[in-house]
Specification:
By secondary structure, the protein is of the alpha/beta class. The chain contains 13 helices and 14 strands. The strands form five sheets. The chain has a five-stranded mixed sheet with strand order 10-9-11-8-12, with helices on both faces. The protein has a three-stranded parallel sheet with strand order 4-1-5. It has a two-stranded antiparallel sheet with strand order 2-3.
């Protein structure tokens, strides 16, 4: 009887210790990533500014930086990432099956996707909306003048349903020309097979950079939907969800704190701000709450950069895509980018 009571007591104590506040247990995905020595990240193949390869075969883009930031936080090396190219129809199956650890592929967060696919979005890294691009020679200045047009659209995207609902609401008809991937759509559109191309506004800006003469193509003013884009993970692994979520938040808050990739080391030794000290790994230890070490967020900033660094490098006015920050500015600058306190 005494032995039985002692066994129960020890079991209860062990359970209490593993669930105590301030202690994080490694989940299945984190264990697998550490054992494997790399983060496997599902990305787009032709999302200019979001994910793609440069002339040297190196993956670059806003979504690529998200993957590298997770690797910096977890594996202490932003280069320990294996990128898996996925089209729109493959992406969710790849995440559900465990083929990838993170889906960072300019994917819209919606109720249907969040509640029915066994995945969960960890945040928003780009606020977008759906639009239309047409050849300038068509002399169309509004999407409302596209009645009867052939529209290029990608299969397995929110764009398909959005455009159907928008045209119906405006009493317009159109013919949908559907393709499996962005490369096929762009080839068809720029060769004249469709009168218009509809997708996220950021995708249209990126696609135009692939045209022989970008100035021959015009993005129309209508924005017909909300497209909050962000990374996603499998549902049910809370520890991994928290790591990916707070990696994004750390990039946003680091920019808010006035840190840049270039100033991280200097501020690490000179700043007296508790927020900056926490972010750069010389203040309060926030890593233990995620099952990580104290310098997790410092490595994100040092090896990858803040959200602002990543945006300017991949999408900003000095890039071929040439997008303004717009609503993706920090909340302190009138935008929508906002992160809970990293403390």
């Amino acid at each position: 009887m005494e032995l039985s009571r002692r066994t129960v007591t020890l079991a209860a104590l062990a359970a209490a210790l593993t669930t105590a506040p301030g202690l994080a247990r490694a989940g299945k995905t984190l264990d697998a990533v550490r054992h494997r020595g790399e983060v496997v990240c599902g990305v787009n193949t032709s999302g200019a500014g979001f994910s793609g390869t440069d002339s040297q075969g190196r993956w670059t883009g806003l979504d690529v930086d998200m993957c590298r930031a997770v690797a910096a936080a977890v594996l202490k090396d932003a280069n320990k990432v294996r990128f898996v190219p996925l089209n729109s129809q493959q992406r969710f199956t790849a995440l559900q099956s465990g083929e990838v650890d993170v889906l960072s592929r300019n994917t819209t967060w919606s109720l249907t996707r969040d509640a029915s696919l066994g995945i969960v979005f960890t945040g928003i890294n780009y606020f977008d909306g759906q639009g239309f691009m047409v050849p300038k020679k068509l002399k169309v200045d509004s999407a409302k003048k596209l009645g009867g047009a052939q529209l290029c659209v990608q299969a397995g995207t929110t764009s398909e349903k959005n455009v159907a609902e928008w045209f119906a609401a405006h009493g317009l008809k159109y013919k949908s020309v559907v393709f499996d991937n962005a490369e096929a759509i762009q080839a068809a559109f720029f060769s004249g097979r469709c009168q218009a191309y509809t997708t996220d506004m950021s995708d249209l800006a990126g696609a135009r950079t692939h045209a022989q003469n970008p100035s021959d193509w015009v993005v129309l003013p209508e924005v017909i939907s909300k497209e909050p884009l962000g990374p996603a993970v499998r549902r049910g692994d809370d520890e991994w969800f928290q790591i990916v979520r707070w990696t994004l938040f750390a990039m946003i808050e680091a920019e808010e704190d006035g840190i840049t990739q270039a100033t991280a080391d200097q501020l690490r030794t000179s700043s007296k701000s508790p927020d900056v000290q926490r972010m750069l790994g010389v203040g309060e230890d926030t890593g233990k709450l995620l099952g990580l070490d104290k310098e997790w967020s410092y490595r994100i900033v040092k090896q990858v950069g803040t959200y602002g660094d990543s945006f300017e490098r991949n999408l900003g006015p000095k890039t071929p895509v040439g997008l303004p920050r717009g609503v993706n500015k920090l909340w302190t600058q009138g935008g929508l980018m906002y992160a809970p306190p990293v403390r």
